[in-house]
């Protein structure tokens, strides 16, 4: 059965996850993000190379890892950015990118080069903000005006593709997906109201506060229960649950972001310590290497389109607020796509809306963007300083957080 966990495969996946973390720590100058090492490790232990493990042996746990990817992405997203000029320009640039992607992929579909129109078009507009955050933070690129624009562009590149796939790619149909979206929104409002109902000094508030540490871990258990409930809503991991995981992260930030900051470190430990790397190793095991080898030019085509379709509009939309070098950095950050892209292709293949050939080429192109684009962003940031463009009056000076 597909839902039976194989302990042998799980042990191999855990070994890959540990080895990837050790390599990043022992080789700090290694120009390869950890997510790429996890994917490559999954390929090595997968059926196309060593055949040590089967993806079906860890699929159930990988589903939970996929949920954690979007939960943590939602938790990191600061919605206040979208009330600023940075958020408005990010929305505009993504809309232009999606329009361009629809036109280009439509032509490719008509020519017979691509079989999955919407998943491919959407894949060209995603952004790997979660992968880029450690690099951007280490280089000091998240501070001030440029940092706000980078965060907003990355946040939109994660949020909007999730919303689109939930409505248009769900296996339950658009009406059901829209109803589900409305239900999740209503749940978010309800949770927000309940948050105001849990007053400081009340018995429930005291119990929650006292049970956050040691053996109780109430807030962490509640978060995992929420996520697993969303995963269990369907027999398979459908798009509605993915959207719910992302919005759950946003709601959790409002619920406990300031009252219990230690929850973030706990979620990082559980998510990034086990479930998230397991998902990426699983995705590497599922990567269709023969399909990439049979059509390498498709990978190159997707790589060029990612840079042109996602990064090109940024160069125009941000002309009056960022200088040329900063616009190039923002364009490269926007065009870097892997974690959300991996999740999107996994979901689309499972729902039958995307072929494994297109999925393999997209993920391969995403791996190249993660390998190359962040290094160029860092190199541009270390170049000679240039006069900054005047900030927009609508964008206040200072960090958004």
From TrEMBL:
Cellular component aspect of the GO annotation: membrane
Domain Cation/H+ exchanger transmembrane: 19-378
Pfam families: Na_H_Exchanger (PF00999)
Cellular compartment(s): Membrane
Chief localization: membrane
Gene3D superfamilies reported in the protein's UniProt record: 1.20.1530.20
Topological type in the membrane: Multi-pass membrane protein
Lineage: superkingdom: Bacteria
Molecular function GO terms recorded: antiporter activity
Similarity comment text for this entry: Belongs to the monovalent cation:proton antiporter 2 (CPA2) transporter (TC 2.A.37) family.
Protein name per the record: Kef-type K+ transport system membrane component KefB
Organism taxonomic ancestry: Bacteria, Bacillati, Actinomycetota, Actinomycetes, Geodermatophilales
